Amino acid sequence: MGGNQGRGMAMAALALLLGGCGGDGGTEAAPRPVLVERPTEHAAGTALALAGEIRAREESALSFRVGGKLVKRHVDIGAVVRRGDLLAELDPGDQRLQAQSAQAQYAAAEAELKRARADQARYERLGAQQLVSQSTLDAQTAAFRAAQGQARAARAQLDVARNQAGYTELRAPEDGVIADRQAEAGQVVAAGQTIFTLAGDGGREVAVALPESRIHAFRVGQEVAVALWSAPGRRWSGHIREIAPAADRQARTYAARVALEDAAAAAVELGQSARVYAADADDVAISVPLSAVQRGDDGGTALWVVDPQDPVARRMPVRLGEFGAERVPVLDGLPADALVVVAGGHLLREGQPVAPVDRENRPIEPRIPKPTTTKAR
Question: 30-43+284-369 sits in which CATH class?
Answer without folding.
Answer: mainly beta
